[in-house]
# Entry
Amino acid sequence: MQLVEVGSLTRELGASAMLAIENELDWEHLPHIHASTFSAISLIRSDRNGWEADVVLANGAPIRMVVMLDEDRLGYSNGTFSGDVEVARAVARIEVVSSETCRINMRFLAPPAPEAELAAAGSFFETLYKQILDEDEPKMQHHARALREGPAARLRRRSVTLSNGQTYQAPEVCPHQGLPLSSEPDAFGIMTCPWHGYRFDVRTGKCIHGKCKGWD
# Structure
């Protein structure tokens, strides 16, 4: 089915073009940073040029998402599928503004429909992606800071207290990508990274799922 353009969005980002592309490749963050939109994601495949995953929306509806980068790595398409039918697509081109800023130009496409439905779809996608970019920007900025600070940031610690009163030293940033680990331990002594959902036992520093090394 040929899709038609229903809307567009231009957004300045306080992050480099490289980090904007890195962020699009980072499928893991969707149900955590964008919890009001996505509730779960199950990866099918991924490489440096894109990814495909089964996604569950916040309302429980299942979709499949396919992200593909442009050859010059300054743009991408994000297709949404119901079964084998593509029901929406976001196409982005990124302009370099400076070493720390970029401009993202997005177009939204949907299946042909009556004019009023297309207008409603365009408004929906413009609002949705504005929210998504607003939620993504702090992550990209924290990532840029982590790259500037290097390994030293990962050595900083803060005190956390368990429900039994025991106190432990936990890192200020997550060992996964160096993003702020601002959460507190739960009743079982587990800290969950708000950015990607990685879970750590504060008593040992181990990553429970083994997805990264932890801080032990």
Observations:
- Helices lie at 17-25, 30-33, 115-149.
